[in-house]
Amino acid sequence: MTQSITQAPELVERVMYPLMFDTYDSLPAHYTAIADVKPVTAEVLYGDRGDVLTNVGRPVFTEDGKEVDATEFGSGWSWRIKVGVLKRRIEIPRRLFEAANGIARVTSLLTDTAKAWGEYYRNAKDGFVAQQFMEGMLTAGSLVFDGSFPNEPDPFPKFIYDGGPWFDDAHPLSASADLLSNIDATRTLDTAGLEAAVTQFQTGAALDERGERINLKADTLLVGSDLQFTAQVLLESAQLPGGVNNDINTMQGRLNVVVNPFLTATGAWWLGAAKKGYRVYDQGAPLLEQQYEAKRQVFHIVSYSGFGAGVTNWRYWQSNNKAIA
């Protein structure tokens, strides 16, 4: 059978798509365990914007016949999340298709590429999320937080919506003079540190934009590979780790452990509420486009997938043992 470049589209459909999808779906997506994940639709193709409400006021006891107090909706801050596009391309020379055993060689190349792309796209997304967590306490900020997209410039491209780092010891409130903290730069992951972090989470940051008390509850401990076994001991042991007299471990089963291997800051850990305060827009497994370029006699295959992430409410995540730099 004559071998030619015309067989390329069929090979891509038959070989690449199934392998790439299977590889992508077989790998754990660590960000799905912590983030509020939304699909990339036409409405948010370039990005999204939302508001952090100042709340509508607390209900108060009101006597019959008395006018009910009214409060207006208010938006204290506006967050922006850019949806970028991860892309990669390969070129296959026309002559490779026409060479002896050319189709077999191309099939092998497409197989390896499909598996690699399935893995690399998943890793790139987890890596982006990890970068935001690791750079969220930089006082100089980081462009990884730039939420700008067409017609929606981010007023604080290196910071979150309130103009400061994600993890900060002086978060301002839009309708109150209070300053709140969601960071401890030196707190290590042990029983005392974990208990202190949970307490701070529930009290130190538990005010809304009006400065009124709200109910926050942490349910997730996020760590890198270096702390995965420490976290397991702290949260799964029936007795207090390192304790005596069979003391009960009050932290047992209290938090879910999420290990993101792309969190490479040694000793750092994060406490949070899953699916709250941090949003991801994800197009899913990469898609493919194909094109033959006659003037160079090469066949192009482009892979792409839309992805974006950002902070929608800083209160729901806390950083520990990562220096404020």
Could you characterize what this model shows?
The protein has 325 residues and is of the alpha+beta class. It has a single domain, classed as phage-related protein like fold, CATH 3.90.1690. 25% of the residues lie in helices and 25% in strands. The protein contains five helices and 14 strands. It has helices at residues 8-26, 94-98, 102-135, 191-203, 228-236; strands spanning 36-39, 47-53, 75-82, 84-93, 171-173, 176-180, 183-184, 220-223, 256-259, 269-272, 278-282, 287-293, 298-311, 317-320. The strands form four sheets. Strands 1, 4, 11, 12 and 13 form a five-stranded mixed sheet that branches. Strands 7-14-10-8-9 form a five-stranded mixed sheet, covered by helices on one side. A hairpin with a 4-residue loop joins β12 (287-293) and β13 (298-311). The longest helix has 34 residues, at 102-135. The model has no long low-confidence stretch (mean pLDDT 92).
- Total domain units: 1
Q: Count the helices. How many? A: 5
The chain-level mean pLDDT equals 92
Strand content: 15-25%
Overall geometry: globular
Largest sheet: 5 strands, mixed
- Classified by CATH, the class is Alpha Beta
- First and last CA, distance: 64 Å
The stretches of 5 or more residues where confidence is low (pLDDT under 50) are none
Using only C-alpha atoms, the radius of gyration works out to 25 Å
Find the CATH topology: phage-related protein like fold
User: Which CATH architecture?
Assistant: Alpha-Beta Complex
Number of strands: 14
Order of helices and strands: HEEEEHHEEEHEHEEEEEE
Portion in helices: 10-25%
Give the structural class.
alpha+beta
